Inverse folding.
């Protein structure tokens, strides 16, 4: 065989190998891109007892216990929000022992609060749930908006059994909502002190409350690579990793908060926060195709559980669960 033919065959072999490698690389890229963003992998909607028989829960907060607390390991606060009807957005509590199946604790009277004059100018929203280990009690918080007076109030109730709740009291209040709002408060109780994160005018702020004393708000620098701004949040302190962790939905245009995704950030000192990364995106045609909203972050047994709320193109809302050891590789829980 001529030397030139051998060289040509070798060249052709290299070219063929290069083409095969390129095809594999491109195909893998598409596959991995689909694994991250393909909406088929998003969670199914979990079934909640909303008291309205419509399974349209929203804005969840989930806490867990090492052992069952008053009969249940997992406790969730959320608000029903059928068709985004603000008059139904009232605090509700559900419980579970397996994360998948949720129900009302026997004896509770949900919702825990209904405004007397509920309408588009007077409504509840933004629940949050805290366990106070000093008093061995649950504490639920929610935001009440009075646009007629221009006020916003964070109310709270407590319970030592999760079923019987005290009358509501004022936890925080702003008499001029245009100057100070408390959107989506995320609260941690620690040794007599409440650590509070909230959103106001496109920014995240941090305060502390001990008794009646509230510290001056501190602006947190949470900057997105794509220029987005934070909307509704949840924050936990991860005792295993010794870091604060935040999940948030974020938007580009405040006048168009549709098709939002869920982002994740963390901080070792609650001062310097890492650039948020996108961890859950809306689906294309499922129950969460319209966009995602406030999520709750739970960490146990070296796994993250993200309870995220979302809505479809017809404004039917719900809650799903994504989980995983790594925030960059979450998968559907159900």
């Amino acid at each position: 065989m001529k030397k030139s033919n051998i060289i040509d065959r070798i060249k052709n072999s290299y070219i063929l190998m290069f083409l095969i490698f390129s095809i594999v690389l491109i195909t893998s890229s598409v596959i991995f891109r689909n694994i991250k963003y393909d909406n088929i992998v998003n969670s199914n909607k979990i079934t909640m007892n909303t008291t309205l028989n419509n399974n349209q829960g929203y804005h969840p907060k989930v806490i867990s216990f090492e052992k069952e607390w008053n009969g249940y390991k997992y406790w969730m606060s959320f608000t029903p929000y059928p068709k985004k009807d603000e008059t139904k957005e009232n605090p509700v509590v559900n419980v579970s022992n397996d994360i998948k199946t949720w129900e009302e604790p026997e004896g509770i009277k949900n919702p825990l609060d209904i405004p007397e004059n509920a309408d588009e100018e007077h409504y509840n929203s933004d629940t949050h749930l805290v366990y106070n280990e000093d008093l061995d009690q649950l504490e639920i918080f929610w935001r009440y908006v009075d646009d007629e007076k221009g006020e916003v109030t964070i109310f709270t109730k407590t319970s030592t059994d999760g079923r019987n709740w005290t009358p509501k009291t004022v936890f925080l209040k702003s008499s001029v909502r245009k100057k100070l709002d408390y959107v989506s408060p995320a609260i941690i109780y620690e040794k007599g002190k409440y650590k509070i994160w909230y959103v106001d005018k496109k920014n995240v702020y941090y305060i502390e409350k001990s008794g009646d004393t509230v510290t001056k708000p501190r602006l947190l620098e949470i900057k997105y690579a794509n220029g987005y701004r934070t909307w509704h949040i949840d924050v936990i302190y991860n005792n295993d990793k010794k870091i604060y962790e935040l999940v948030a939905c974020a938007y580009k245009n405040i006048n168009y908060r549709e098709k939002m995704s869920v982002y994740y950030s963390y901080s070792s000192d609650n001062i310097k926060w890492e650039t948020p990364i996108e961890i859950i995106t809306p689906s294309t045609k499922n129950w969460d195709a319209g966009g995602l909203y406030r999520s709750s972050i739970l960490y146990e047994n070296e796994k993250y559980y993200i309870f995220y709320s979302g809505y479809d193109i017809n404004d039917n809302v719900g809650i799903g669960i994504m989980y995983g050891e790594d925030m960059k590789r979450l998968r559907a829980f159900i």
DSSP finds one helix and 20 strands in the chain. The mean pLDDT is 90. Residues 38-101+126-133+185-332 form a domain with the Tachylectin-2; Chain A fold (CATH 2.115.10). The longest helix spans residues 3-37.
